[in-house]
UniProtKB/TrEMBL annotation, chains A, B:
Residues 2-249 form the Glutamine amidotransferase type-2 domain. Keywords: Glutamine amidotransferase, Transferase. It comes from Chitinivibrio alkaliphilus ACht1. This is Glutamine amidotransferase class-ii. GO terms for molecular function: transferase activity. The keyword Ribonucleoprotein does not apply. The lineage of its organism: Bacteria, Pseudomonadati, Fibrobacterota, Chitinivibrionia, Chitinivibrionales. The keyword Iron-sulfur does not apply. PROSITE patterns: GATASE_TYPE_2.
Amino acid sequence: MCQLLGMSANTPTDIRFSFSGLRVRGGERGPHRDGYGLCLYRQRGVQAFHDFLPASQSDLAVLLERLPIKADVALGHIRQANVGVVSLVNTHPFIREWRGRYWSFAHNGQFRGSKGLPQTYYTPVGTTDSEAGFCWIMNQLRALARPPGEKRLCTLLHQFFQDLDTRGIFNAMLTDGDRFFTYCSKSLYWITRRAPFGQAKLVDRDMMVDFSRETTPRDVVTLIATEPLTEDEAWTAMQPGELILWKNGEIVWRGV
Amino acid sequence: MCQLLGMSANTPTDIRFSFSGLRVRGGERGPHRDGYGLCLYRQRGVQAFHDFLPASQSDLAVLLERLPIKADVALGHIRQANVGVVSLVNTHPFIREWRGRYWSFAHNGQFRGSKGLPQTYYTPVGTTDSEAGFCWIMNQLRALARPPGEKRLCTLLHQFFQDLDTRGIFNAMLTDGDRFFTYCSKSLYWITRRAPFGQAKLVDRDMMVDFSRETTPRDVVTLIATEPLTEDEAWTAMQPGELILWKNGEIVWRGV
């Protein structure tokens, strides 16, 4: 099993505090030793970081923790390999372009029948069930006679995610840098931080942050993760089978 | 005008020495202040780094210089914006998946008529002529009735590159992590390092490396750049209109 981390915010926000917590689960405090990845979006452009080394030991991850990059949307993943060898090509998030946007995807769990999924426009590069699932979803969107509106896109994605979920476990995150979709199979938690901002301490490391010093009163920042990352905030559990679409840190669609 | 850097090697090779030379041309010793990018391939997986800040000042570039990542193939670019604003979406290399491989592309120069190029499968995310040219090339390859063999691929790419070259200046590099294509419009130089290895000093910085200490006698490493990066080695100029396909550091196809 892997761990997921997502962020949707209404202002460019530094993800380092949360990433610091996730990172130590990659081989130090957790078994997720098989690589990690982080996509940071800024105005639809994406900075992607991938490594097949444990996030807790990787030089790149150490450097990332020091890098003051702010993002509108972030998608992170640390991997415990089950399907597919430890390798750069099997490291989430996976990225494909559709309709002039970079879509990235990460998955936690595993599911049956990924080899049998029909692929058309997009082809997996690696050998994970996750990337096969992602390509299959994007291929079905591409095959539509006309591009779906947002509501229809939500309904379709909900259906595709649930489809794969019936074959195993399929916690997933998908984003185009503006819209952020989170689907809960077994375990996803979220928290929305807004004024008045407080303090929080990481579960996994002896690190604290006072958000009131880092934000303006108008900021809205939502974090979504496999397990709560902080110990003194009230995280909300998503329901099994639930899809939420986030935009600018707010819920704009949800369905179970 | 921008600057390009490519590497094709028969063994995973550290690109940091060359990147150090290129980097200072990004705003310190050159006018290429408008972002930079570097794709490092390892077994068809790709680690991509993009930033819209000057390479000479960017925190990420400073960190990259310290990162001991070895690659089979590398593609780097520093940008001086002419078409398209300074932004992450306009930062080379651009990446698309085709037939289960990540293809990345970078361009130096500018050309007319990029807005009028017909796009089908792949759509530009940003607003550069370069990305439009890349998508147009990949769209034509995708539209073929059957996937081309390697010789046919070379002939076709040569034709597409020359086509865009007649509209302006089109020095370009394209790779799938195995095959490395370089096309010279006005300025590209290459050097192949093999045993017996010597020393080299960067043109742009007071840095030296003794390759004999970093290599084995079987290593073959080719560097290709807009201008020679070292001052005590004999770089070969590519001819205008010439395409070379490199594999494992060796020339496997060339045509003018």
